[in-house]
Specification:
The protein has 271 residues and is an alpha/beta fold. The protein folds into 2 domains: 3-139, HUPs (Rossmann fold); 152-270, Rossmann fold (3-Layer(aba) Sandwich), CATH 3.40.50. It has 10 helices and 12 strands. The chain has a 10-stranded mixed β-sheet, with helices on both faces. InterPro entries: UspA.
């Protein structure tokens, strides 16, 4: 993963995003590209008669905001030991981010912060990026330390294409882990890739992992995954992400929405 893309937003999770982006860039010896997108709609105002216009004071305020966040990020990265660049773009956020992600290996973003007083990353935006980008998303926790990619990794495996894609796209990170565990929630006999296929795939890439099959109990699946991650001290969780059409078919489908909204463990998720 030599090309790391960081989605910059001036919200309460910016420092966590920066720390996670720096961690993965250092671990892989890569280059960090930061992108801040100002939505085109931010320039538009409406009058009481349904008219649409652009006010000069809005343009000035947005320019000041863009300059402030650029200075904040550039000052933060100035003393770091990784190569980086910064780009300011005006456009439709999902389109711009997905376009830049086409030549990136992983995208670092953040979650909605309902307790924050500044800008947020709506869960719908994250969901759209997850569906359209062809790279994994790294979502740090809202607080706590950045993931240690030389630590323990947990794979949430359900045998789906999305789960397989997440493992394959995260392989460069998994190769760095000291320990890899895979958790499968109850056995699947419905045509999904069996857990033995996961073990075989990883072994062919010289990656060793330990599989644990957990019976599906009364607790929500997300809690089961988080409990296991905490039990083994996982630095991050790798899992597949699902859209509305696939969520009902996937064992972890309902977890996607919950984990995009909040997760106490750093998440590497791919569609």
């Amino acid at each position: 993963m030599k090309s790391v893309l960081l989605h910059v937003q001036d919200d309460d999770t910016l420092e966590q995003r920066l720390q996670a982006a720096l961690a993965v860039t250092r671990a892989t010896g890569g280059h960090l590209s930061c992108i801040h997108v100002t939505p085109t709609s931010a320039y538009v105002a409406f009058d009481g008669f349904g008219g649409i216009f652009v006010m000069s004071d809005i343009i000035t305020a947005l320019a000041h905001s863009e300059d402030a966040i650029r200075r904040k990020v550039e000052d933060r990265l100035a003393g770091e030991d990784v190569p980086w660049d910064y780009e300011q773009v005006t456009g439709e956020p999902v389109h711009v981010i997905v376009q830049r992600a086409a030549l990136a290996d992983i995208l670092v973003s953040g979650r909605d912060n309902p307790h924050g007083t500044t800008a947020r990353t709506p869960i719908r935006l994250l969901g759209d990026i997850l569906q359209k980008a062809r790279i994994p998303l790294l979502l740090p926790t809202k607080d706590g330390d950045p993931p240690d990619f030389n630590g323990t990794a947990l794979i949430a495996w359900d045998g789906s294409y999305e789960s397989a894609n997440a493992v394959r796209q995260s392989l460069p990170l998994l190769k760095l882990a000291d320990d890899i565990r895979a958790i499968q929630i109850e056995k699947q006999d419905d045509g999904r890739f069996p857990s033995i296929a996961l073990m075989e795939y990883l072994s062919r890439h010289d990656v060793s992992a330990e599989l644990q099959v957990v019976a599906r109990g009364s607790n929500p699946l997300g809690e089961t995954i988080v409990d296991e991650a905490r039990r083994i001290g996982a630095a991050y969780v790798v899992m597949g992400g699902y859209g509305h059409s696939r969520a009902g078919e996937a064992v972890f489908g309902g977890v996607t929405h919950d984990f995009l909204k909040d997760c106490p463990v750093p998440l590497v998720i791919a569609h």
